Amino acid sequence: MYYCSIRKIPWVFWSEAPNVRYEAPFVKNELLRTILRKIAMLPIKYFAKEVWGIGNRAIDEYKEEFGLNKIYKNLPYYSDLREFSKAGGLRKNDIPPTFLFSGSLSYRKGADLFAKSIESLAKKGYEFHVIVMGVGEFSNKLTDLKSFRNIEIDLLGFVQLDKVPEVYSKANILVFPSRHDGWGMTLPEGMAAGMAVISTPYTGCAIDTINDNMNGVLVNTVTSSELEKAMESLINHPTEVARMGEAAKRTISSYTHIAGAKKFNSMINKFLRSYSAL
Questions:
Q1: Are 241 and 97 within 8 A, CB to CB?
Q2: CA-CA distance, 199 to 210, in Å (whole number)?
Q3: DSSP E strands, the chain
Q4: Helix (H, G, I), strand (E, B) or coil at 262
Q5: 48: left (phi > 0), else alpha (psi -120 to 50), else beta?
Q6: What is the pLDDT of residue 24?
Q7: Smallest Cα–Cα separation from 211: which of 197, 223, 224, 190?
Q8: Beta bridge mates, 45
Q9: C-alpha atoms less than 13 angstroms from C-alpha of 121 in its C-beta half-sphere
Q10: Is the pLDDT of residue 28 over 80?
Q11: Averaged pLDDT, 81-88
């Protein structure tokens, strides 16, 4: 960034939302970390011609960071969703409420909230199925839930990428209760597979794509009680699960790798035309 600025080469900064939370920082001292971060951000604030955020949440946070006197554009992540869409077509229509958690079983990903919600719903006597892909610090907590006879839990651990769509075909509700996710690639995969999705306002993709109670559910606060409420509602309203899943699939159809390539190419060409004379 400094090199391009010194050489007067126009450049754009493209990134997820800043201030990643709930991860062990490389620099432990908070004051030193704050100073180093401000230094790292200086060239973006003063020299970047444009700031592209990965989702609207990123744009909002960068506006707060750098002010309004810059050009901001939204260029989220896109991906090849064809295999997930195919997987959704293989799902049986009569499966019971089946919750899928896919990702690191960590605090940041909300695995503890998921485990607490499952436990509470099981104690209420609900019958449902749970599928978990991933490993992490809350693996044992989820394993303990197998003691409940009224629920079925499949702990798959790490699953190879080419096998993931097949797992998506066996569930109809994706639970993604992340406390911080710049985008969250699991969410569009679940939506492409025609699943009802539950997520949080701290997930970039959820902010951009979920219309609450239309194609998914955005919990108001990131707590186990709010997550449990959303999951319980879908257990009690199976027709809503199917309706939301279909709506989610329509919504995410514009986030394919083909659409992304076209948008990226358009934005790059516009940028080059705007600053080629500088």
A1: yes
A2: 9
A3: 12-15, 50-53, 71-74, 98-102, 128-133, 151-157, 173-176, 196-199, 216-218
A4: helix
A5: beta
A6: 66
A7: 197
A8: none
A9: 29
A10: no
A11: 96
pLDDT greater than 80 at residue 161: yes
Confidence of residue 72 (pLDDT cuts 50, 70, 90): very high
CA–CA gap between residue 265 and residue 193 (Å, rounded): 27
Specify the residue for token string 């077509």: 89
Give one word for 13, left, alpha or beta, with left for phi > 0 and alpha for psi -120 to 50: beta
Chain length of the chain? 278
- Checking if the pLDDT of 163 tops 70, the result is yes
- The Cα 142–Cα 134 span in angstroms is 11
Structure tokens at 265: 């190419």
The answer to whether 205 touches 76, Cβ cutoff 8 Å, is yes
- Which pLDDT belongs to residue 213? 94
